[in-house]
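Below is how a single chain appears once it has passed through the pipeline. First comes the sequence as given, then the structure the pipeline wrote out for it. We keep one example in the README because the format questions we get most often are answered faster by looking than by reading.
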Amino acid sequence: QVQLVESGGGLVQAGGSLRLSCAASGTIFNLGAMGWYRQAPGKQRELVAVIAKGGSTNYAESVKGRFTISRDNAQNTVYLQMNSLKPEDTAVYYCNADLKISFYSAPVNYWGQGTQVTVSS
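Resulting structure:
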């Protein structure tokens, strides 16, 4: 069984910062790209940031310059540092990862359970 467990969400005032963490656990042979998505009420889930195993990153235009994604491959953990938060960043943030559980298995995409981020104005 593979689990992605997020932590670090909460309530913050506009202009503040939060750091999200997501740890992958279980039977993991190879952990590939990891990322963060978010879903606000009444909206579709959208990509926030993604980081490849080698460290290359990609960000949504709305968070460029404010959010930073990073990972610790030894700990199977991905982070999202969120600075200069805005009320429009309010959403449930989901961790996502592509991984293989064995040499012979195909990569499978996994989701975390989500963590709420609320930014007050």
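The mean pLDDT is 96.

See the next section for the split statistics.
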